[in-house]
Amino acid sequence: MAEEKPNAPARDRYAIRRSPGSSPSGVHQVTEHQAPGYTIVGNHLTQHRSLSGLAIGLAAYIQSLPEGAPVDIRTLARRFPEGRDRIAAALRELEAYGYLERVRRRTDDGRVVTLTLSYNNPQATRARRAREAAEQAKRRTAVAPPCPSPDPARTPTPARTPPPARTPTPARTPTPARTPTPPPNPPRVRTGPRPVRTEAPRVRAEPPPPPPEPRTHAHHTPAAALLANLRRDDPRLLLSVRDIQRLTPPVAAWLERGATPDAVCGALTTGLPPTLRHPAALLAHRLTESLPPPLPTAPPSAPGAPVPPPLQTCDGCDRAFRAPTPGRCRDCRHPAAEKRRLA
What we know:
By secondary structure, this protein is mainly alpha-helical. The protein has helices at residues 43-46, 53-64, 73-79, 84-96, 122-141, 220-228, 230-233, 241-256, 261-269, 279-289, 330-333, 335-342, and strands at 100-106, 112-118, 311-313, 320-322.
């Protein structure tokens, strides 16, 4: 048996109380009574798995402030050593998880201010609002109970009263027949045909014809590429994906009608105003108003017109000549006649 040492310190001196099965290391709580001026923070905030330490600290600090205290980024940056970027990121984290909400409101004098709402328990707040919304919905859809129908067994039947006695009807005297009186002006009978009224036709204003759509989608890809490359000619012509999709069919109509990409680009980028606020609207106007006409088709040849022979390449001098079959041209076949002609 070990020998007792009277100079060994007692366990109660270190204010450590171990529960059965607890680890001897780690944190041990030393709780003291606090005077008024403390803040109650839930463990769901202090032990949050997804929030950073700066976000948890800012949430606890904001909950400890009185009503109306400024909690903007500039004020918090003067209070804490972290910069504005880190504080702004921490506030965004609190907004994402529902601990903070920033609402813009307009005051009576016309100024727009930011109101910050700090929730110490966002889950409980959401549950309470859901219950209140459900109760209001029940109140709106509540129907008043129908009035109970009277019981015929309990309703007293009124006593029947005898009908009044009938009085004798006097005898009717015959009325003399009335002689029909002729009408003062007899109606006129029309013998001729009835005239027909003719009204002037109403002229309706016809709406402007819509821009022609390309019949095929073969030109859509080069048209979209042309619109996307306009910013290389002018940086102000930077179009969004939605604007390119809307302007692709009109550009494809230009290409289908025989216009080259350089011609379309020149028509869209030439003579732009110095101040360009809506480039997509300006391009849509130019594509609609300056649309070229379609190329005329070649007239069909007459059935009896002679068809010229195809072009052939001369086997001697590599010149092109028209002949039904390949071979040599006239100069290569008759060189002496050509020499006499040149002399």
